[in-house]
Design goal:
The chain has 251 residues and is an alpha+beta fold. Helix content is 47%, strand content 13%. It has nine helices and seven strands.
Length: 251
């Protein structure tokens, strides 16, 4: 997946989360992601969100299509359920032993408008493919996942072994040292966060960063790669959150 961190690997300090972001963080971490309003009131209070603020945020989120409401129960919309699935996959990626093969996808569709092209690029990035050149996306074939059927209508897929050494190709596709430095910074900030609200904001940044982890074979990663430490830190936070505020099905 293309990485979008600053070249030097720095990470901006997390901003305080809005009421909407707190609600989404709570629901994205809940399994199933549906909660009665009375439980949401209890869960968001430690993060500085009061009752009137929460109710106003819930109304806006339903209107915007972020949430669905059934009686007094709020749940994620289909769009955000897909985001939860991506988040879960980032926290627990399914991999297999890498045999040296790469998967490659070449875009063949033409005449798409800018919005369609941007959407396709986003979807390919979510599949942890990286763009070698315009219309050519690839990655080591070590993920236990299938490409969505609809992609075959706009692209051709291949499997093989590039002539270029894998380590050199990886260095061209992903700025791994910068990603690792950002991960270490986020772990430090999360450990130093002193309030429930700042810790939630710190770990929300951790999850966003994990979504950009390319999940490469160990042989192609730099020494002391922090991906598993980042996942482990977030999993521990989820367990702590579940115990302190009663988040259902966390982790």
């Amino acid at each position: 997946m293309p990485l979008k961190d600053p070249p030097d690997g720095t990470a901006p300090a997390p901003r305080p989360l809005s009421a909407r972001s707190v609600v989404l963080s709570v629901l994205l971490g809940a399994h199933p992601p549906r909660l009665p309003v009375k439980d949401l009131l209890r869960l968001v209070e430690p993060f500085g969100v009061g009752g009137s603020t929460l109710r106003a945020a819930l109304s806006r989120m339903v209107a915007a299509g972020d949430l669905r409401r059934t009686d007094a129960v709020y749940g994620l919309s289909d769009r955000l359920l897909a985001r939860q699935r991506r988040q879960d996959e980032a926290l627990h990626p399914l991999t297999r032993t890498w045999d040296g093969d790469w998967e490659m996808l070449v875009i063949t569709a033409t005449g798409r408008d800018p919005a369609a092209r941007a959407d396709l690029r986003s979807r390919l990035g979510e599949l942890r493919l990286a763009e070698l050149r315009e219309g050519v996306w690839l990655r080591p074939d070590n993920l236990e996942r299938s490409l969505p059927t609809e992609l075959h209508r706009v692209a051709l897929t291949y499997q093989g072994r590039p002539d270029e050494p894998a380590s050199r190709l990886v260095a061209r596709l992903w700025p791994l040292p910068a990603w690792a430095r950002t991960a270490d910074t986020l772990l430090t900030r999360a450990a130093e966060a002193g309030t429930p609200a700042t810790r939630l904001a710190a770990y929300a940044a951790v999850v966003r960063h994990l979504l950009t982890d390319p999940v490469l074979p160990p042989a192609l990663l730099p020494p002391d790669w922090p991906g598993e430490r980042l996942r482990g830190g977030y999993a521990e936070y989820q367990r702590e959150l579940a115990g302190s505020v009663g988040l259902p099905g966390a982790g």
